[in-house]
Specification:
The protein is an alpha/beta fold. It has 15 helices and eight strands. The chain folds into two domains: 166 residues, 3-Layer(aba) Sandwich (Rossmann fold); 180 residues, Dehydroquinate synthase-like - alpha domain (Dehydroquinate synthase-like, alpha domain, Up-down Bundle). 48% of the residues lie in helices and 12% in strands. It starts with 9 loop residues before the first strand and ends with a helix.
């Protein structure tokens, strides 16, 4: 058996992770930049970080938008390089702040780069130290090397194994307790997508299979329970654990065609990323036609569609034939197809979009 597994991020997991391990965070430097959104002030995570870093030089950028545009990265860099040199960039929040933090960390350490050079990993080998603290359970960005930004209206990911993995991830499920139902579902489905895509991926290994299967089992069992009891710390912890495992999976396998398909619904229709991706998983499983795909179906009692129905998945959007034609052209050149089992020609991609329209958009 031959396989590789590279994840240099130190994971500190559990309730109170930041404050209980404040000396580890403090030891990383003297000057910190926290990139976050407004929700971090509601869930207590920003207060914990500021308390842990008391006495350090801390700057805060707290208006990170969902699906951050690439143009935002140099704007942040220019705003926070006028007074002192930043040692550590902290991504605090969901995928958007964490992905933004990774991009900012690279540009701060490589000011000669144009922001689009982020997508050419041969042009840089270093970044400021990156710390990721997730406050949603789904993205897994705290344990991956990937950063996804919006470039010319399309979601595009970059990575560099030498420098875009976080140095440390502090993973505390308690920050997710204030999440509403819609965000809980979408982020959990993002984690499910990562686990399921990684499991059937042509890049999968026996080690990633173990992590992916554990993640899928937890989401299948505990997401419906969490939706019925959203303040349950135990259910919140199980979904956060699954999200982290699924992130570890895609750090090795990357994602498959469901992500490429879903990006279009996010950028053009405003559907949250996790939901937009997950609705293509039933089609991908069927089209894969592999033993592993059948294993996944069996885990979900033969029908992922039934699982989605049970948790109330529906899309309140219209998808036209013109939309589908445009999206198919975009997805047909996506690198995700190379790691996806099954054929994905123009007709197959068209069928995938039409099936989603029929299953989730019909009255």
């Amino acid at each position: 058996m031959n396989m590789n597994f590279f994840m240099p991020t130190k994971v500190i997991y559990g309730k109170g992770a930041v404050l209980k391990n404040r000396e580890i965070l403090r030891s990383l430097g003297e000057h910190f930049l926290v990139i976050t959104g407004k929700s971090s002030m509601k869930n207590g995570s920003l207060d914990d970080v500021l308390e842990a870093l008391e006495g350090k030089y801390v700057r805060i950028y707290d208006t990170t938008p969902e699906n951050p545009p690439i143009e935002l990265i140099p704007e942040i860099c220019s705003e926070f390089t006028d007074t002192t040199d930043i040692d550590v960039v902290i991504g605090l929040g969901g995928g958007s702040p964490m992905d933004t933090a990774k991009a900012v960390a690279v540009l701060l350490d490589n000011p000669q780069l144009n922001v689009r050079d982020l997508y050419d990993a041969t042009k840089y080998t270093s970044a400021k130290k990156i710390v990721c603290i997730p406050t949603t359970a789904g993205t897994g960005s705290e344990v991956t090397q990937f950063s996804v930004l919006t470039v010319d209206g399309r979601k595009m990911g970059f990575s560099n194994n030498k420098c875009t993995f976080p140095t440390i991830a502090f993973v505390d499920y308690s920050y997710t307790i204030t999440m509403g139902r819609e965000l809980t579902i979408s982020t959990a489905l993002d984690a499910l997508s990562h686990a399921m895509e990684g499991y059937i991926s042509l890049n999968a290994t026996p080690l990633t299979d173990v992590l992916a299967m554990e993640a899928m089992k937890n989401i299948k069992e505990f997401l419906p329970r969490l939706l019925d009891d959203p303040e349950s710390e135990y259910y919140r912890e199980r979904i956060m654990f699954a999200s982290m495992l699924a992130g570890m999976v895609i750090a090795q396998t990357s994602t498959t065609v469901a992500h490429a398909l879903g990006y279009n619904l996010t950028t053009d229709k405003g559907i949250k990323h996790g939901l937009a991706t997950a609705i293509f998983l039933p089609f991908e499983l069927r089209n894969a036609n592999t033993e592993k795909a059948e294993t996944v179906k069996a885990l979900f009692d033969g029908s992922l569609y039934r699982f989605y129905e049970d948790i109330g998945i529906k899309l309140n959007i219209d998808i036209s034939d013109d939309d589908i034609e445009k999206w198919v052209k975009i997805v047909s050149t996506a690198s995700h197809i190379r790691s996806t089992p099954g054929n994905y020609d123009i007709d197959t991609l068209t069928e995938a979009f039409k099936e989603v329209r029929d299953m989730f958009c019909s009255e």
